[in-house]
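Protein chain data
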Amino acid sequence: MENITPETVPGWDTLIETAQDTNQVVKETNQLTRMLREEQRKEFTAMKEDQQQQKEDSRKEMNDIKEAQESGVQRFRDYDQFFTRWREESNRDMAEHRERMKEIDRRLDRISQMQVMDRMQQQETDRLQKETDRMQKETDRLQRETYAQMKETDKKIKELATRFSTTTGNIIEGLMSSSATEMFQRAGYDMHSKAKNVSRKSKNPNEGMEVDVILHNDTTAIAIEVKASCGKGDIDRFLQQMEKFKRLFPLYADKEVLVAIAAVNYENDADNYAHQRGLIVVRTDSYNFFSVDPCDKGKLLRF
């Protein structure tokens, strides 16, 4: 048979606590029983003493009666009345004693019932606690699985979004750069050379810069930022980057540099905002896909 140890019995601490509580109740019950028995012993002793005393008194009475027989019937009647009274008192004392014993029995029954109820209540409490622990473990497991699934889903969504954004940007940039020279020539900008994805890297991320397309001739260059969707903030960031363009790309330091923005979608009138800031705007149309919307040359921003 496998030895029973605290490690092999679930809820061992609870069982020990229950056993201690039960021992305490048993001790209190034994103490109460001893007190009741002592009270009974004292009562019986007192009754015996009373009976002995009454017997002594009766004997004295009998002697007195015998000695007083000559005094007549009256003394005999007194003795009869006394004996009757003594018998009634004895019967009353015995009845009270029996009631006390019944009360003791009732108390013991209540104590026994309370012990049974305590055990049943403890068993139900243990069962509910085990069920609660099981449900909590199951809830924790489901939460962990759900959290893991959510993280995996977020990861996949981010990967898809990155791939889609990169793919979309590459497509738009390719379409834009492939026809950029001819498009700007039709708009009146005599550009004859083109460079794609011109970048300058730096250990300091604030010092680097990348330009999607650069068109240039002998005297002028046009730096073009290509985006799928463009907002006003994108325009402000690009112009901020352009402040260091000539320093990072000295090849164009002696040229007049214009700025253009090309996008499929302009958010919140960003194209009009670009014109206000002096940028050339490239929009999509139903014929050439991209077309140049030139800004008034007097308002063109130049670097």
The mean pLDDT is 78.
